[in-house]
Task: inverse folding
């Protein structure tokens, strides 16, 4: 698989236009078309849907773009390392829960980016079910999860600390008057839950099933902020990391439910075992460790 073809493919995917890609790559449009056709023949499937003068990625094309980014990033990294460039280039792909990305990551990036200004970062929400394979084939370099434990034998997990969890709702909700609410009090309630696979959400669903508790309905959302806004609009109950609602509780916009037991979830940093890590990744991991140790 020629890296030049991958570069052409990534450029077309970014612009969604063969003519514009040719201008950027300083070549003829026919050359771009030939390279894309050769790559499609090599892979054995169409990467683009042609719609007039524009194009759209096929499902296979969207998957291929992830691999193209990684392969080209490895090329950049190799050139930087062999050429002795001080900071290096390339890309790191990270998966982490929205709460970590929103409330912790900015402070880590503030220290990291000046040291590695040429590193591109691709940060997406946590995902459990495909994580081991993604780390194995390096479409993901490093992951962070809220979980009780990480059991996969091929993954190396590092416990960073614990995050308190709260059940919250809107002020004036009947559950705010309970002195010691428990899971049975969620019978018939509207539950708002994060759509991404985070450990505390899965534990909650398991407990509700074992306790035979049936909510009125479950509303899944991709955004923690959307969940908070829905709560403040007067609908539903959710379980959420305490740091994500601390300001709203202080301002009286969201109300904490007094729970019978203290709740928390572990924070884990996860990588694939015995896999070589580029210096930029090792440095990022060290900054994360230092951040959580400093507390």
Result:
């Amino acid at each position: 698989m020629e890296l030049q073809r991958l570069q052409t493919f990534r450029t077309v995917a970014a612009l969604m236009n063969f003519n514009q890609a040719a201008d950027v790559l300083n070549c003829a449009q026919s050359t771009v078309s030939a390279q894309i056709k050769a790559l499609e023949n090599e892979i054995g499937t169409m990467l683009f849907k042609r719609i007039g003068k524009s194009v759209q990625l096929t499902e296979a094309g969207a998957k291929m773009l992830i691999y193209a980014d990684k392969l080209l990033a490895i090329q950049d990294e190799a050139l930087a390392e062999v050429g002795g460039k001080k900071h290096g280039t390339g890309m790191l792909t990270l998966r982490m829960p929205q709460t970590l990305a929103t409330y912790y990551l900015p402070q880590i990036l503030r220290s990291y980016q000046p040291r590695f200004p040429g590193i591109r970062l691709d940060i997406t929400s946590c995902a459990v079910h495909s994580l081991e394979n993604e780390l194995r084939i390096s479409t993901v370099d490093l992951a962070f999860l809220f979980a009780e434990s990480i059991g996969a034998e091929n993954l190396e997990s590092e416990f960073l600390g614990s995050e308190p969890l709260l059940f919250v709702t809107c002020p004036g909700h009947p559950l705010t008057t309970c002195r010691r609410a428990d899971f049975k009090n969620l019978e018939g309630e509207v539950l708002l839950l994060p759509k991404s696979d985070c450990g505390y959400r899965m534990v909650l669903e398991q407990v509700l099933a074992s306790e035979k508790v049936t909510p009125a309905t479950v509303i899944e959302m991709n955004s923690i902020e959307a969940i908070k806004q829905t709560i403040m609009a007067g609908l539903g109950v959710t379980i959420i990391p305490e740091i994500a609602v601390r300001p709203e509780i202080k301002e009286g916009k969201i109300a904490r439910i007094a729970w019978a037991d203290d709740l928390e979830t572990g924070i884990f940093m996860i990588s694939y075992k015995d896999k070589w890590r580029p210096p930029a990744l090792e440095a990022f991991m060290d900054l994360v460790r230092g951040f959580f140790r400093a507390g």
The mean pLDDT is 89. Residues 59-83 form the longest helix (25 residues). Residues 163-264 form a domain with the D-Maltodextrin-Binding Protein; domain 2 fold (CATH 3.40.190.290).
